[in-house]
Amino acid sequence: MKKLLLLMSLLMVFILSCGGKKEAAQDKDSIKIGVIGPLTGDIAQYGTSTIDGFKLRVKEINAAGGIKGKKIELVIADSKGDPQEAISIFKKMVSQDKVDFIVGEVASTASLAISDFAQKAKVPMLTPTSTLFDITKGKDYVFRVTFTDPYQGVAMAKYVKERGIKNITILINTSNDYNVALAQAFKEQAEKDGIKISEEKYTKDDKDFKSVLTKVKAQNPEAVFIPDYYNTVGLILTQANEIGLKTQFLGGDGWDGIQTNFGAVAEGGIFASQFAPDDPSEIVQKFIKAYKAEYNTEPIIFSALGYDAGTVVEAALNSAKDLSRESIKEAFKASNIDNLVTGSLKFDENRNPEKKVSFIEVKNGKLTLKDKF
């Protein structure tokens, strides 16, 4: 009983120190934003690209005079993609660095881990890229720029139906929340639409997929849906090519980046996304030009979502009644923005954006816009 009371007391101390009082950014010389993401580790490309996109937009905002006469100051930390590391960083940023709010995390598991702390401490949190539905559910201080796993899963299933595909195998990484949630949403909608679904499973520790792929080949599906991240998908497609499995491969937004090292084996693959480098719109092309000038590399979807997070932040801070956390939260909630690289944004009741889904095809080693749905 004494241990329980001690733990409850410590939690209350943390909550009070983080969010029990209003943090008045208007009394400071700058607006301090904590940025959390994986800059090293297996998904470092996602973290680096997202944070680079956000940094670019913040640089533009500061160059234009900042927000209400204040410059934005960033406190950036590497979570290594580890949820526990993300929690430790969050606590330090709020209690020691005294950030006004958080932009991050990048990976869904890490965002889910810190979202409960953000809600309890009443610290606004905006994740640019995390798609797991439960991150924002029931948490009015937590928002996201990207669409959710169920949203893109349903959209992909409807797109498949329109293409007349009637027989699909799903490869499911049972160790990955993103993969499982996306696969489930796709499966439910596809079965509603009369599409025959088969499943094969693997785990995060698997590197040899040939036995699973041999089973898939025997099923002779019209398409294979692999809702995993590009590095794992690349290994699967490489081995599928080696055993002669030829079919239409499909995926979710985690495929973005596959063209870097796996363009040849991913040729013809189609995945759901929110950004296409060959989209002719002025907003998209202006962003690409600025990103390439800043970093001397091509942006990916994570870069675009990071950049758009900066635009969402700018709009919210400019419209907020004041720069307290409560006012920033309310300003995020009221967001209604048309000029984003990844489309317009207006939050639903769970603080998730409703967007069109872009379907991207890997063609000649590049990502090309095939359709919007």
UniProtKB/TrEMBL annotation:
Report keywords, A-Z: Amino-acid transport, Receptor, Signal, Transport
Protein name as annotated: Extracellular ligand-binding receptor
Source species of the chain: Pseudoleptotrichia goodfellowii
Region forming the signal peptide = 1-24
Q: Name one GO biological process term.
A: amino acid transport
Do you know which Pfam families this protein is assigned to? Peripla_BP_6
Q: Which ranges carry the Leucine-binding protein domain?
A: 30-365
CDD domains for this protein: PBP1_ABC_LivK_ligand_binding-like
